[in-house]
Structures are given as structure tokens and as C-alpha cells.
Model the fold of this input.
Amino acid sequence: MLAGVDLDVVEGEIVLLSGPNGAGKTSLLRLLSGLLALTSGEANVLGHDLAVDRRSVRTQLALLGHDTFCYDDLSVVDNLRFAARAVGRSKHAAVEAADRAVERVGLARQAHLEHRRLSAGQKRRLSLGTALVRDARLLLLDEPHAGLDPEGRDVLDALVRDAASDGRTVVFSSHELDRARGLAGREVRIVAGEAHGGRFPTAAAASPTTSTSGSGSVSSAADEPVAGVSAARAGVDTEMAPGDAHEVSP
Amino acid sequence: MRLLREAAVIAGKDLRIEARSRVTTNQVLPFGGLVIVLFAMALDADRPTLTRVAPGLFWVTILLAASLAAARSAAVEIENGAADGLRMSSLDGASIFLGKAAAVAVQLVGLELVLGVAVVALYDVEVRSSPVMIVGALCATVGLAAAGTLFAALASGLRARETVLPLLLLPVLAPVLLGGTRAWEAGFEGTPSDGWPWVQLLALFGLVYGSLGVLAYGSLLEES
Amino acid sequence: MTTSVSPVRGSRDASARSGLLASRRFVSVLGWSCLVSMALLVWLGLSVAPTDAVQKDAQRLMYVHVPAAWLAYLAFGVTAACSALYLWPRTRSLHYDRLAGASAEIGVLFTALTLALGSIWGRPVWGTWWTWDARLVTTAILFFLYLGYLALRRVPDDPQVRARRSAIAALVAVVDVPIVHFSVSWWRTLHQEGTVFGEDRDAQLDATMAWILLWAVVTFTLVYLFLVLRRYDLAGIEEAADERQLERAIVERRSEAASSVVAAPEPVSVAVGAAPGSAP
Done:
């Protein structure tokens, strides 16, 4: 869970969240994606105040989680098409987006294989594909390197760099620190539900990152925080819910 | 209509999953057939008795099958965190409910057709007035699919407990059992005027649970 | 700063934890009045009440059967009301959820009691333990309906999530009650005229019987109040215990994380790459 996180992210940034297992990286990403409710504090993502509205932001970002969010009995393309249609693409656009994504994540040969027959690495790629078809401004990737083969990791890194050079923002967590640090523009360490280095270093703090003078207009990239979280406390990880605590006890 | 278009996307997805996995055709349908045969064995295949209770046995079978179909429909959203995917989509809770209920309804109509033919053949009954039976079955299907989808979502939180669903759902479906049975009795006995009021009850049930699902499904998806 | 939809802890404020609806003193006074009132009822029902001309002593079961049935309906009504109050954003509180659960448990208990007493009464009067009377069938279905509700409540989850789910289930279930009642009575009237407890039977009660019945209803309502308050407090204690366990798990986890930081020689915060943000 999160115990008072401060974090600012500006457009086009690639931010790495590092830290030990269970420190709150997944919770933070779920909070940013609008899935996890804020207990207290403030969170503002893509211009939406998450304390007020957690739904609107979701369609504008992509979350790559531990789960693939895919259906076991649907094929790779069918899963991708559904993912595209679920964010409101037309049938035609969904077919095109799915075909493009299949190529980019390197699953062309498995395109008609059901999800359940894919290997762990292929599932990971498919999951990345469902994030791609959403054409989102903000990509939240929870340990995207986990389970991928070296080739898959290269594909992932290339996609992340492409996304950033398109002006998209990427926040990801990883335990592959050498690789991840080469990819990221900034590292934020999460320990025991608190972020270290989440605020900008002093040099950047002088620039008007948190000023709201733009008030919602799409101003120049560096000025507008894509995501701002302050003193955020949020929930309990699913594996830590009270029910479990209860079940574990004799 | 955005609602209907979105519902069609969901229904299409669920039906495609069924077409690929064939859980309803390969598991639920044979289960229903088995129940019908078991009933006949329990009643000693005594033809007059069997003929008299055929409508009731048929609808008990459909209720059990509906409970399974609804559980399956909810289960596909649990695997791989698909429900999180739906939460991240722009689809409205109401259209997700309508889509999932529609997919369950389509599968139930298929089950009713096959099992209905089986009952007519095995229990020695004669269809004398089919309109009241067909309309009754369609109205019952709407109610079964709506209540089933709603309760399956209620029972399938993060920690799914499959055993809760039948206990929760079957008492709620008691009016559908009564209505369906009376409507089909009327159809078998050739006295449709006895059956139509029950068809109205079935339609009312479908309407009530359809509306409840449209209202409640979004918040269920959000929090569980 | 506080958000109303937070899943845990924040909204489980101190008052929700201590969570007493009524003072201990009130509850214990209530408990004693229940005992006294019940003793009085036993005396009234067994020796003061006149013996029924037709049913003889078996009719005395009415003094427990009817109030038990009344209580079941009262309890389920309270569950529905509390569920609605929980779902209404301005009155959302785990107090209502806990009350809804407590009331439903007692409702199920009294529904079972109603069915059992009805059955015992039915044996000498109708010559059978069970008859497919509309009221009996409706009550039996009600019993299973709320048994399902309680099973759902027992599925462990985050308190707010579980509360929301249970509240929706309770309301969806209560909508079913009139439909079940209507369809069942309609079904039975096709087969037999009227119900076993016809209107005329109620009208035959003489004044003494009516007064004792009223006393029984009051007594049972007191018992309900007592049970529901005690059950509510117990649920509060259970939740507090769960929470303490959770806090302990969190502390453990945090100390684990802290020790791993101490072990690592690297600085706590690292900023790789100086300037945040790059032009697209």
C-alpha cells in the first residue's frame, strides 16, 4: 500500500519506479491508472482529479499489469481487436490496429493462437500489444521486463523509446535495474510505500512544472505535469486484504 | 445507440469465447441432458407420471443450466484479470451487463431448444399450443439471463466462490420456475389461456431484473 | 482531503471501530427486560390463555409462531433499509453494513424458527409436518434467499467492497420477495381454495388471546433488538480484530522493507538523468 507518496511526471518522460518487492510500486501504478482508490492525499493524472473521478482517465492511458487482461479462449488478434473496440474504436479501425500491434510485438506467427496456448513471454508480448492498440498518451508498465526473453526485452525497450519520442509518457517498474536505468530518464525509488526522488531535482523545480497557469490547455510538454501525486495514501494490496489476514490466522 | 453498440461488442466477445471453448455445448448441454435422463430414472420411467411433471422437470433443468452458464460468463472475466481490462475500457457498466446477459440468453435459447426436444421425445408429451410455450420460454430466458448475470457478478469478487452462486441465484429464480412450468403445462394441455398470465409474470420478472442489472452492474464491476 | 470512496482504513474511523449503537447499560437492561417479558409470556401463554376449542393446546404455539414470523419480516426489512442507507452516498457508513448483516442473521434464525414451529403446529392440526401452503413456500424460499445472502457476506474481501456487494444483493433479493409471494400464492390458489390460515381464523381470536399475542409480539421485538445490538457489537469486535491483524502485517512488511534499505549501501533516492521531460 502507499503511505504518502509524492511524485510528479511531465510529458514525454520515461520514469523508472524501483524498489524492493511489496514496496508499493504496483499500488502506485494502479493508483495512477485510476483502478485503486485514493484514501487521502491528491492525485492528478492527465488533467483528471482522481479523488473526484477515477473513470475518465482510464481510457486515455494504458496499463500493463501482472495479468494480461486477456481472454484465455480468444486468439491473439481477437484479444487485440476486443481491446481496441473496448476503447471505442470502430470495427474497421480495431482490425487495423490489431494487425499493426501483432507486427510490432512480434506475434505475427502466433496471431491465431489462443491466449492459453501462448508461452509466458508471448503472453507478455500480447499484453504489450493490448496496451499499444489503446494509442494512449500515458503508458503505465508494471514490470514489463519480467518473463520476456532478451529479444522480447529489446522489442519492449524500442517500443518504450518510440513512445517517448512520440511525446508519450512512460512510467514503469522493473527489477532489471541496469537495463531499466539505461531506458529511463529518471528513477524514483519506492520504499515502504513512500517515494524517494518523486519530486523534481532542484534544477527542475525552478521551472514551472506544477504551475497551473496553463489550466488544462495543452501547453508545451515540459510545463504540464502529466501526473502529479502528493501525500497520496491508498489501499491495501489485494494479497494483503483483511480477508486474507483473517484466513491466514488459525 | 452507443449502449447497444457497446453491448454488441461484449456479446460478440462472449459468444466468440463460447464458439472457441465450447463450454456450454460440451459441458452444460450434456449436463442438462443427463439431468433429464436422471429424472426419468428416479420416477421409474412411469409414462403417465413423467408426462404430467415434464414441464416442471424441464424448467428445473434449465434453471440449473442457467446457473452454470451464468457462472461461466462471470468466470471468463476473472481469468487473467480481464475485469480490470473492462474497468480500463470506455464501455459503460450498463452495456457490459446487457452484452453479457444477451450472450447468456443466446446460449440458453440453444439449450432450451435441444433439451425441449429431448423432453418431448423422452417424456412422451405432445405440444398442442406452441405460441404460449415459445413466448413463455423467451420471456423466461430474459429473466434467467438477467438475474444470472447480475448474481454471478455479485458472487464473483476477487475471491470467487463458485458455490455461493447457486444458493444465491436459485431462490431468486423460483418465480421463473413457476411461470415457465405453468406456461408449458398450458402448452402441453392445449389450454393457452391458462398460460398467458404466467407469461406476463415472466415478462415482468425479466423487466425487473434487466433494470436492476442495468442500474447495479457498473458499481459491481467497479468495486469487486 | 478525505475521499468518500476510499476502500479501507481512512473511512474506518475510530467511531466505526468502537461502534456501539447503544450503551452497554442499555443493552443489559434490555436483556433483563427480555427475560422478564419472556417469563411472563410463558405464564400467559400456558396458563392464562384459554384453550382453543378445536385445536386444544396445540393452538398455544401461535404465541411463538406468529411473533417469530413477524420478526423475520421485520429483520429482513431492517436489512433492506440499512442496505439502502449504505448505498446512499450521504449516509454511507460501515455501521449500516454491520447492522444489515446482524439483522439478516437474526432474520434467518427466526425464519427457521417460524418454519420449525409451523411444522410442529401443523402435525397435530393438519396431520402433516408440511403442506405446500403459499405462506409456507414463500417463507421457505425467503429462508434460502437470505441464507444465500449470508453466504455472500462471508466471502472475505475488503470491508467496503464487501459491504457494497452485500447491500446490492440485499436490495436485489428484497425486490424478489413480492414477486415470489405473488407467484406462489397464485400457483397455490389454482390447486386449493384459500390458505390454511384463512382470514376467518384470525378473526376468531378472542380478546384474551389477542392481548397475549400482542404481548408476544412485543416480547419478541425486544428479543430482536437485544440480539441485533449484541450481534452488531460482536461484528465490530471481529472487524477490529481483523484490522489489528492487518496493521501487524503492514508493520512487519514495513520493517522488512526498512531492513533491506539499511542493507543496501546506495543512497535512498537516486535521480538518474538530470532534467525531467524532453521535448517531443
In short: Chain A has a mean pLDDT of 79. The helical segments of chain A are 25-32, 76-85, 91-104, 120-132, 150-165, 177-183, 202-205, 242-248. The domain at 2-71+139-201+219-248 of chain A is CATH 3.40.50.300 (Rossmann fold). The longest strand of chain A covers residues 225-234.
